[in-house]
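Q: Hi! First time doing this. I have a protein sequence and I read that you can turn it into a structure. Is that right? Here it is:
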Amino acid sequence: MITIITILILLACVVLGFFVLIQNPKGGGLTGAFGSISSQVMGVKQSTDVMEKGTWTAMGVVCALCVVSVMFYEKPKTDNANSKQGTTKSAPAQSAPAKGKK
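A: Yes, that's right. Below is the predicted 3D structure, encoded as structure tokens:
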């Protein structure tokens, strides 16, 4: 499930990047690209409203998906035997070397 949410987050980020890059930093944005055609069809004011609403919506989707992804996060499972004895395994004890006969 977390993989699907991650893919959706990446797609929403691409859409958000599209909305941000298509806007003109001085406020012209999409209206300047189409010239008088956009003012006749959509109106100058409405094209900037659509871009702004798209930006805020994409940002909201990214934020919501990030919060939802935390709910599906699973903690890694630990081995009970290792947690009781410690995480390191001790080496078996070696016996003392046998004393040889003289």
